[in-house]
Amino acid sequence: MLYAWVKKGAPRPDDGGDAVEKPATGGTYTVKPGDTLSKIGERLGVPWPDIAKANNIKTPYRIHPGDKLTIPKAAATAPAKPARPTVDLSRLQAAARTDPPSSGQRVTYSGVRIVEDALVKEGLLARSLADGHFGTATLTAYSRWQQRLGYRGADADGIPGRTSLERLGDKHGFTVVP
Question: Count of CB atoms within 10 A of residue 112's CB?
Answer without folding.
Answer: 24
